[in-house]
Amino acid sequence: MSKIMLNNLSKSYKNKAIFHNVNVMVEPGNMIAIKGKSGVGKSTLLNIIAGLETATSGSYRLDDMDMEKKNLNQLAKVRGDRIGYISQFSPMIAKLTAYENICIPLIFKKKNGKLEVANMKKIVELSKLFQVHHLLNEKIKKLSGGEIQRVGIIRSIISNPALIVADEPTGSLDDETTSIILNFFQEAKSNGTTIILATHSQLVADQSDVVYNLTSGGLHLE
Ligand SMILES: Nc1ncnc2c1ncn2[C@@H]1O[C@H](COP(=O)(O)OP(=O)(O)O)[C@@H](O)[C@H]1O
Ligand SMILES: [Mg+2]
Hints:
This protein is α/β, with parallel strands linked by helices and 222 residues long. It has helices at 42-49, 72-82, 98-107, 117-129, 145-157, 175-190, 202-206; strands at 4-13, 16-26, 31-35, 57-62, 65-66, 83-86, 163-167, 194-198, 210-215, 218-221.
């Protein structure tokens, strides 16, 4: 469960203003969709929420933390502890198997040098849900683009993040994978996970609790 509060958040790159005055509060267990024209800054805003970059001004509180006051190392720790970031492109290590790639975030959490049995069970469970169970021991380079995306999604959610940040998660997915991920989001939500995503898809927006439109002037209800 995570609560997000953005107050007068602005972002510019050098002299180029991307957006300003973004104000939003996302309650724990809610799913929020952000729509907006290409180039308006949806990915930039999600990157800030995911702790991958920082805003130029304004404040961002995630639960009890002032994210704008954290350095990059501290942000990385917050990401590892509570944020799952899903994007259209999931960088994978081609020489490793699907299973090994999924384990990467868990390596930083393992106790006594061993992965917990609960984690292994979760990998199997999610692989079945995303229908890549039979591919777990295959090297990534042998998988198709769609299969790699599914493995990437599993890797993003394997640590049970309290907050899922998803940048056009269904943008290039086939219908079947889209419906699997939407079902997963609904289930995660019912377990208290907060989800914030950027999307162009009406189907995804329809399943969200609140839909916002991002413009250079801020975030407004659709
Ligand atoms: N690292 C960067 N340096 C400079 N400009 C950037 C950088 N990242 C994104 N931009 C610019 O910020 C704007 C918003 O990009 P982006 O957040 O990707 O928009 P969206 O996801 O809505 O399509 C674009 O004009 C893009 O070129
Ligand atoms: Mg984008």
